[in-house]
Structure formats: structure tokens, C-alpha cells
Amino acid sequence: MPKSVMFTLAIAVAALIGAEVTLWLAYFYAPVQITTGSLFVSQPTMGVPTNNLYESYRIFFIHLPSAYATALCCGLGLVGGVMFLLTRQDKWDALTVSAAEIGLVAGAITLLTGSFWADYAWGTGKVGSGWNWEPRLTTMLILWLAFAAMLAMRSSIPALALRQKLTAVYGILVAPLYPLVQKAIEIGQTSHPRSFSDLLSAPEIAITKQVSSICIALVFVAAIALRFCWNRAAIQLAAERAA
Amino acid sequence: MSEPSSLRAFTTLMRREILVELRTRSLLASMGLFALLEVVVVGLGFRALPDDETLRRAAPAVLWVCILFAAIVGINRSALADRDKNLHAAFLILPFDPAIIYVARLCASFFFLCIVEAVMLAAAVPLLRLEIPREPWLLAVLALTNVSVLGAGVLLASATAHAKASEALLVILLLPVVTVVFLGATGATDAFASGLGFEAAQGHVLLLCICGAMFPGLGILLYGKLHEG
């Protein structure tokens, strides 16, 4: 078995163990969250915020690392795009596609966990009641749609060379969307917390957040590595067929 | 053949774009008619609104959507016309930097889109009872939005023109990228229309400035890379 595949499998195994550790910490180690802090910014038109999150906040340990993973995917898409245009090596194209695929998954998890949490924290508890088109939710949804658009584009262009070049260019164009997601809370009215410092003041929660960030990031890195191996082989096959 | 100066190449390409449009009038006709139809359809949809205040608040955002789609129609039409005559490939073998082709196409599209916007606003004033705020900053918002949308659009259209279902593909690729611009444009317009002044619109104008510099900048850098080899 090639060394790169062995390495990828090793990351995948470590990621699976990390995911189990995260779940254990999130559900059994971190305490129930009852605070009088100011976790949610109160806005008159943005639903009713709550500070007593009880069990609902545990979704944070999946939500935040997934958002970090989406950022990582944006960055890898940018690196892959730039490097492909400079070197024209297939591996960089495979990296951009893998980043988009896993970015799509990570973005979906971020959006779903964020929405479920918002239903409780900002809404009435009914599914969808927390979705209030506030800037961070909206910009994250746009980023997710951009990843989906990139993958849709790849299936629409039969010529491999054009497909690879356009993927690289689109990877570069999509990358600046993530800083926008980060800055979105400063642009308009927002109900998204600007800082989690109140929540993280409890040491158990802070430790769980650190561990979950590393472990969930490892899960997504393993997924990117596995997809990278697959996509690289698929691109090589397509190039051989085209030749 | 000696290489022409960048300015000469640019003016030649711009002249060509405008002359072709003056002779055929296909781009302005399709964009303009599309924009007018959008205004009429929106007006029909809005007639059931309970009061003018709701219409006044919603009209700027709706107009930006109309402008966005009119721009996409124009970019697509232009790219497909080049594809049908294989002009794009011919331009690329000319002895100058391909980025000049991009800049010329961007400037020509900007010029045509400004004309279409003027026509659309003239129609929207009576049909949507639109009140245009007397705020000079709105011109900057308009210019930055146009440059940003066209900056990304011209780059992507030149590549998607050769794909299957290229019209749909351009929309799918372009909309997520330029929704950021839309966010800035609607936010700034809303602030100016409400009479809140530049202070309230500052964040959105800054966002538009970033997009207005970033998308054409990336286009200039990437256009040649996208079409070489």
C-alpha cells in the first residue's frame, strides 16, 4: 500500500477516535450551561435572545469546529487554485475539488447545527423559527452555495483542461467569501454572538471546546485527504482517457 | 508584427465593442427589454401591497435584483456572441496581454449597463413610484456595484461560454460570488434612502470598495491564466 494512503488512513483512524472523545467530553464532561452573561446580542427585530441555554449549547462543540473546517476548506481551495494556475499539476486541482466537497459538508453541518441552536436560542423552538436572515447566517449560506456551484460546474464542463482552470479560478474567487462571513457580524444588525467569552469562562467548557476543535478538524482533514486520493486518481484516469 | 501599446490595444478593442453594438444593438436591446420586463413584472407583483411605505422600502432591493439579472443577461449575450463567431480565440492570439481584452470587455459592459440602468430607473420612477434620494454617494454605490458584478461576471462568462448549458452555469457560478456585492449595495441604498447619511452606510460602502477593487483585480490577474495553453 502506498505511503500516502497509509498516512491518510492513519489520520482517519485518529479522527474517528478524536470524534468519540469529543462526543464524550461534550455530553458527559461539560456541565449544563446556566448563565446570566451576555452570550446573545439583543436586537428588537431579531427574535428573543436567551442566556439560559441549558443542554442546547452542547451543539456548539460541533458547530464551531465545523465553521473552522469550512474556513480551512476555503483556504485549501485558494491554495489549490493558485498553485494549479502556476504549476498546472493535477494534484492541486484535486486539492481544490476535495476542499470544495468537504467544505460543502462542513458548511452544511455549520448551517444545520447553527439553525437548530438558533431555533432554541433566538426562535420559538419550532424548526426554522431561528432563521432570521441575519448577516452571518446569510453569508455562510452564500458560501455553502458557492461550494455547491463549483461542484455543479465541474459536472457541466466535459473538457478536462477548461474544467481544471475554471475550478482553480472559482476556488480563488470563493476564498474571499470566508473573511466576509467572519466580518458579517460587524456589517449589519446581528443576533449572532460576537464573542463566546462568557460561555468559555467555565474551564470544562473551554477545555471541551479546545479538544473538540482539534478533533473535529482532524475528522475533516481526514475526509479531505481521503477525497484527495480519490479525486487525484479520477483526474489521472480522465487525463489518460482524453489522451 | 510589432506589439501595440496597451492603451492602443485597449482603445481599439473598446471601439470595436461599441461599434458592433451601435450596428447590431443586440446587447442593449436584450438587456434593456429584460430590465423593463422585470420592472413591469415587479410592479404587477407589488400592486397588492397595502401601502406605499412597504413599496418604498422594498423597491431599492428589488431594483438591485433587476440590475443584477440584466447584467447577467448582458454578460452572457456578449460571451455567447463571441463564442459563436470564435472571436475570443482570435483575440487571444493577438500580440498583447490578454488582460487588456478583459479590461476592454469590462469597460464596454460597464458602459452598456449604465445606459440600461438609466432606462430602468426612468421606468421605475412612475411604475414603482420610486423616489430617488438626492445623494451623490449613490452614484458611487452604483459604479462600485457595476464594476464588482461585471468584474466577476466577465471573467467567469469567458470560460463558461464553452460549457454545456452555459447560460444556467454562469448564473449558478456568478450569483453566490456577487451576492456579497448585493448585500453591500442594498445596505448602502437603504441607508441613503432612509436619510441616515454616509455614517450609516459606511460599512456597506467599504464592502463595495473592497469588492470593486478585488473582483476586477482578480480578473486582470486570472484572465490570461484562464485562457492560456
How can the largest sheet of chain B be summarized? none
Instruction: Provide the CATH top-level class of chain A.
Output: Mainly Alpha
Counting structural domains of chain A, the number is 1
The proportion of residues in beta strands of chain A is: under 5%
Can you name the CATH architecture of chain A?
Up-down Bundle
> Spans of chain A with pLDDT under 50 lasting ≥5 residues?
36-49
Fill in the CATH topology of chain A.
Four Helix Bundle (Hemerythrin (Met), subunit A)
Largest sheet of chain A: none
- Radius of gyration of chain B, in Å, reads 18 Å
Counting helices, strands and paired strands, the structural category of chain A is: mainly alpha
List its traits.
heterodimer; A: 243 residues; mainly alpha; Four Helix Bundle (Hemerythrin (Met), subunit A); 7 helices; globular; B: 229 residues; 84% helix
How would you describe the overall organization of this protein?
The complex is a heterodimer of chains A (243) and B (229). Chain A has helices at residues 3-29, 60-87, 90-121, 135-156, 160-174, 177-187, 203-242. Chain A has 243 residues and is mainly α. The two termini of chain A are 27 Å apart. Helix content of chain B is 84%, strand content 0%. The interface between A and B is medium-sized, with 33 and 29 residues.
